[in-house]
Amino acid sequence: MPVEIFRARQEVQANEGRIALQRGPIVYCIEQSDHDKLKYDEMTFSARERLLVEHREDLLEGVTTLRGKDGLGRPCQFVPYYAWDNRQPGYMQVWVREKQEEQLYNY
Length: 107
Hints:
Elements: E1 3-7, E2 18-23, E3 26-31, E4 44-45, E5 52-56, E6 63-69, E7 75-80, E8 92-93, E9 96-98
Parallel strand pairs: 4-9
Antiparallel strand pairs: 1-2, 2-3, 2-9, 3-7, 3-8, 5-6, 6-7
């Protein structure tokens, strides 16, 4: 199943400039337990970023994660939303700020 990038409807102003990831019927999120040096809402993510879909038997008795690099090139991991908050307390985000890509101009 491909990973799909979603943007909120224009009327949802709180999610303007943000994206969410979904694979099949599963919505994904980032958790603080995987990104302990980040503060809430600090991560950016490119809609063009390639993601590795990886089933991890060692995590939460087996879940499929999405791994890539955040907007600053640091490794990041998305876990299924249904599985969040099962490791340690911390923040969670479904809607992540979208990295603004460099514009290419032809003159």
